[in-house]
């Protein structure tokens, strides 16, 4: 899957091929507005309200208490973006929007939209400073309580689709009984594996303010004692010796420097039981010179800005694993999320 500009007729194809279409105008003017429109629509409750069924502009204006003209403009754009259809003066969510933008669907990314609108959007103003200094924001050190809550809700939203595929395809031993989920937050990865392997229990190691906000999200899964929290810090805590069959580091390596990741991987190798697996579940930075890939590259820049670290290549991740004495096992690319993979090593 790739996000591209596609032409709709031979004349447009000619214009694009002859390099006559000012593509950067799309990036400079159209795409920022598209992104902000989706985020603000989520935050103002537009997708939630539209979930009640097809409605006129007047009905939505009244339900949302918004300005009629401005809402009409927003809905026009969201219709062009295939979030809505417009027929007989009625706006209706498309199946795509009903699944992924309507907040009550289990696969919704609505929480990520709200977090990006209220918190991460403002970080983008610092991109120029980051480019000059190379110093990112290190947001884990400065979030307010509300921001921790939006962040943890965003992590659930970002993972709902992925967790299903992770549960189906992660190469874990069927006899596993103990799992460590480092930076596991809401615990969706632990939950899918515990549901699949009846004897498995999991410990989620995360920062205390994250656990405070994530605990209610995990409780919704009804796993009882099988998935438990351990407040701590992956950079400073010992993980034990020969204690786990599965250790997962999902979307945390991109917040750590290469040196920190090596340190964490060394502790993982000690904490794994023989035959146990270590899964680094991550967005992957495309190797320089390889086929360009938007998701791996844009998240790389975003994590640089937000954490000073960034994405790593498959070879870099496998390098930490091998230096820690683990054996290369598998690389599994997600089918539902381009640019993301499980990089798996075995003890
Ligand atoms: C981007 S989220 C990923 C959450 C989850 N693993 C997933 O894949 O959806 C990163 C998580 O790591 C946690 N985290 C950040 N720094 C950490 C540290 N030093 N030790 C433990 N957890 C940390 C954050 O609190 C957050 O819950």
Automatic annotation (TrEMBL):
InterPro entries: COMT-like, COMT_C, SAM-dependent_MTases_sf, WH-like_DNA-bd_sf, WH_DNA-bd_sf. One of its GO terms (molecular function) is O-methyltransferase activity. Pfam families: Methyltransf_2 (PF00891). SUPFAM superfamilies: S-adenosyl-L-methionine-dependent methyltransferases, Winged helix' DNA-binding domain. Coiled coil: none annotated. Keywords: Methyltransferase, S-adenosyl-L-methionine, Transferase. One of its GO terms (biological process) is methylation. It comes from the Bacteria. PANTHER family: O-METHYLTRANSFERASE CICE, PUTATIVE (AFU_ORTHOLOGUE AFUA_4G14580)-RELATED. This is Methyltransferase.
């Amino acid at each position: 899957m790739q996000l591209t500009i596609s032409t709709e007729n031979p004349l447009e194809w000619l214009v694009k091929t002859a390099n006559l279409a000012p593509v950067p105008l799309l990036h400079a003017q159209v795409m920022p507005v598209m992104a902000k429109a989706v985020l603000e629509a989520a935050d103002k409750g537009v997708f939630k309200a539209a979930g009640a069924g097809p409605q006129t502009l007047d009905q939505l204006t009244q339900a949302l208490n918004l300005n009629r003209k401005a809402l009409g403009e927003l809905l026009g754009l969201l219709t062009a973006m295939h979030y809505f259809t417009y027929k007989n003066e009625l706006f209706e969510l498309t199946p795509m929007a009903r699944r992924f933008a309507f907040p009550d669907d289990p696969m919704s990314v609505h929480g990520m939209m709200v977090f990006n609108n209220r918190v991460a959007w403002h970080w983008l103003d610092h991109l120029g400073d980051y480019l000059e200094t190379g110093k990112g924001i290190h947001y884990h050190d400065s979030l307010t309580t509300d921001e921790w809550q939006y962040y943890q809700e965003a992590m659930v939203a970002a993972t709902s689709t992925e967790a299903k595929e992770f549960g189906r395809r992660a190469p874990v031993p069927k006899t596993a009984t103990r799992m460590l989920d480092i930076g596991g937050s809401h615990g969706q990865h632990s939950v899918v594996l515990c549901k699949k392997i009846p004897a498995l229990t999991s410990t989620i190691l995360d920062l205390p303010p994250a656990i405070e906000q994530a605990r209610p999200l995990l409780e919704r899964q009804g796993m009882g004692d099988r998935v438990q929290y351990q407040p701590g810090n992956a950079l400073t805590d010992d993980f034990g010796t020969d204690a786990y069959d599965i250790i997962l580091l999902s979307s945390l390596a991109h917040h750590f420097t290469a040196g920190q990741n090596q340190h964490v991987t060394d502790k993982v190798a000690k904490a794994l039981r023989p035959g146990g697996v270590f899964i680094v579940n991550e967005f992957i930075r495309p190797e320089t010179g390889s086929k360009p890939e938007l998701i791996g590259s844009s998240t790389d820049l975003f994590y640089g800005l937000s954490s000073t670290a960034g994405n790593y290549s498959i070879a870099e991740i496998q390098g930490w694993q091998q230096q820690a004495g683990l054996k290369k096992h598998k690389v599994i690319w997600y089918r539902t999320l381009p640019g993301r993979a499980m990089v798996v090593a075995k003890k």
